[in-house]
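User: Some background: our group keeps a shared notebook of sequences we're curious about, and every so often someone picks one and asks for a predicted structure to add to the entry. Today it's my turn. The entry only has the sequence so far, pasted here. Could you supply the structure so I can complete it?
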Amino acid sequence: MALITWCKLFPWLLDLEGGRFFFNAVKEGDSVLYACNDENESHLWVMAMYRATGQAHKPTPPVTPAAKNSTISKIQGG
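Assistant: Of course. Here's the predicted structure to add to the notebook entry:
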């Protein structure tokens, strides 16, 4: 079973092309890093992978000051 988690925004992630929102999947020691430009799309991918793997705990996005103004936060009433 794979473990799906959100990635904190580390400075070295900003140097990568192709995304602003990062999450990864880990299975048997192998890790794959995913990135999306759109926050909503990254949320959809994480939740789809979470459901597909049957993981016991639901991944939660990292809390950042910028996240308070995010679309997801607004939808959730934040």
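Suggested note for the entry: Residues 65 and 73 are 11 Å apart (CA to CA). The longest helix spans residues 39-53.
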